[in-house]
Amino acid sequence: MAQYLLAVHGDDAVYDTPIEEAQPMYDATAAFNERIMADGIWVFGGGLKRINTASVVDGTGSDVVVTDGPYLETKEYLGGFWVIEAPDLDAALKIAAEGSKACGGKVEVRPFEDGE
Amino acid sequence: MTQAADIRAEIDRIYREEYGRVVASLARRFGDLDIAEDMAGEALLTAIERWPVDGIPPNPGGWLTTTAANRAIDKIRREKIRDTKHQAAMMIQDDTPHEPTGPVEDDRLRLVFTCCHPALAPEARVALTLRLLGGLTVDEIARAFLVAETTMAQRITRAKAKIKGANIPFRVPERGDLSDRLSAVLAVVYLVFNEGYLASSGDDSIRADLTAEAIRLGRILRQLLPDEGEVAGLLALMLLTDARQETRVAGGELVTLDEQDRSRWDRVLIAEGHTLVRECLARVEQTNGVPGAYQIMAAINAVHTDANEARSTDWGQIVALYDQLMVVAPTPVVELNRAVALAELDGPDVALAIVDQLDLSGYHAWHVARAELLRRLGRSDESRDAYDAAIAATDNPAETVYLSRRRSQVAG
User: Fold this and answer.
1) Looking at the domain assignment, is residue A25 inside a domain?
2) Which of B83, B87, B167 would best serve as a mutation to test chain A binding (most A beta carbons within 10 A)?
3) Residue in chain B nearest A108 by alpha carbon
4) What is the number of domains present in chain A?
5) Which comes out higher in pLDDT, residue A15 or B81?
6) How large is the C-alpha radius of gyration of chain A?
7) Where is the RNA polymerase sigma-70 region domain (chain B) (predicted)?
8) Is residue A116 part of a domain?
9) Beta-bridge partner residues of A9
């Protein structure tokens, strides 16, 4: 078994969608979450607040520097993610396809270092 | 040729033939493409040393696989002593047969599907397939696709690292996913074939080594998936196209279908292709199915190869087949080919009206089609301009010579 990050990317429009319009997406995502929890696939997951809530901390120099804003200024950014367990990439891609359908966003699939 | 040279050539031939089988078998057993490739290489070195002395074994493929597997086990044992990773060592002890994971069990098929995984970049799929199943060297693949050897080596290394790192499984997809994944595999094989049949650039107009490789891969797929219509369709398409190869270039100039010497077409390949097309038709009828794009393209080529002279070509049937193809693969290129066939039935003006509406100005065949239709309509100046555009858009030497001659023949 390997762990994969399923990262959902999108732009501000996702956050601007009125709640009544977005509700089916929330419901589908909740149902997907419950399903993968029941199947033992779920490790962790969650949605992130808007990009304007992000700060960057740089502790690599002698002083710690904190700046307002995200690490990368892009139109589309990480909006939420899951960490899942899957036997191989094919299985992870299948779960990602369901997750993408549920939340209405594109999903990047990336394996974790397995700590070898 | 000396006897030593004879046996060396024979070893090379056997190795090329068996390479995919050896690598696929090792990849399945050890789950590691690098080990599989390296040990297949070492088995070759051992063969070069031993076979001239001991003679070629009765089952050379089995000999190579066993030798390579023994080398792999030695290597893993040595590494086990060096570090504490036990996972690899466990594989040596674990001799249980591989879990059957797909509708068909064959190591090579598993490897084709791994090489053509949709999570790999399309150009990496082609390179990996040629390397691991075709046994072509990195240098040969680099030359075929006109990139530097280091670029191609990097591409292959990166793809292998992704297979390992992302845990892309060595598996034939399950029934439900098979047709999606199969289309990627067939696309790779057809790409290899087309690159050989009309090299996009370079000094050679035809790369017979590549067309032969694609046909060989097609035959393996057909052996492994005998019930897949599109597999039979692709093989038939390649055979019927390849049957005309000998007549396609004369004196360094491309010869079009209507001007080819049909008596020199390869009748054996044509017969085999026709049999496959008939088999596809029968299956479609039995199952009330819809034939896929490769089957329809094969059928179009079957109609062409059925005619003993260009004049007796059944254009009505060809246009009808293109109509079918437009349903399953509605691309501008298919529309262009349909229009060219339609010109034979309804005249060049009807065809030109369709061609002019297609957004294909970057595609050399579009300019060729326009040039030919304009010429038949007596619109000489426009025809010459279109030939110029076509010449500018192709890098194939035989096609350039052909187009230049055609251009010079446009009246007045």
Assistant:
1) yes
2) B167
3) B119
4) 1
5) A15
6) 16
7) 16-80
8) no
9) A78, A106
Rounded CA separation B232/B234 (Å): 6
H/E segment holding residue A10? strand A2-10
Q: What is the mean pLDDT of chain B?
A: 88
Give the separation between CA B393 and CA B166, rounded to whole angstroms: 39
Single out the residue of B209, B270, B262 nearest to residue B238, CA to CA.
B270
How close B118 gets to chain A, by Cα (Å)? 10
The closest of B147, B138, B154 to B37, measured between CA atoms, is B138
Residue B231 CB neighbour total at 10 angstroms: 27
Is the pLDDT reported for residue B187 higher than 60? Answer: yes
With contact defined as beta carbons under 8 Å apart, do B391 and B400 qualify? yes
In this structure, what CATH number is given to the domain that contains residue A45? 3.30.70.1060
For the whole model, what pTM was predicted?
A: 0.78
Contacts of B85 in chain A (CB under 8 A): 116
B407, B371 in Cβ contact below 8 A? Answer: yes
Q: What is the per-residue pLDDT across B129-155, written as a single tens digit (0 to 9) for each?
A: 989 988 888 988 887 777 899 999 999
Q: Which of A89, A94, A112 to mutate to test the interface with B (most CBs of B within 10 A)?
A: A89
What residues have CB less than 8 Å from B372, skipping those under 6 apart?
B340, B383, B406
Mean pLDDT of A19-48: 95
* Predicted complex ipTM: 0.84
CB contact under 8 Å between A90 and B165, yes or no, is: no
Predicted confidence at residue B105, as pLDDT, reads 59
CB contact under 8 A, B169 and A111: no
What are the start-end ranges of the H helices in B201-248?
208-224, 229-242
Q: What is the mean pLDDT of residues A80-107?
A: 96
Decide if A89 and B85 are in contact by the 8 Å CB cutoff: no
Q: How many CB atoms lie within 10 A of CB A23?
A: 11
Identify the domain containing residue A38 by its residue range: 2-111
Chain A residues within an 8 Å CB radius of B83: none
| Dist CA B129 CA B111 (whole Å) | 8
What are residue A16's phi and psi, to 5 degrees? -80, -10
| Chain A contact residues (CB < 8 Å to B) | 2, 87-90, 93, 109-111, 116
A93 contacts B167? CB cut-off 8 A: no
Q: What is the pLDDT of residues B156-181, one digit of tens each?
A: 999 999 999 999 999 888 877 887 78
The mean pLDDT value for A108-113 works out to 96
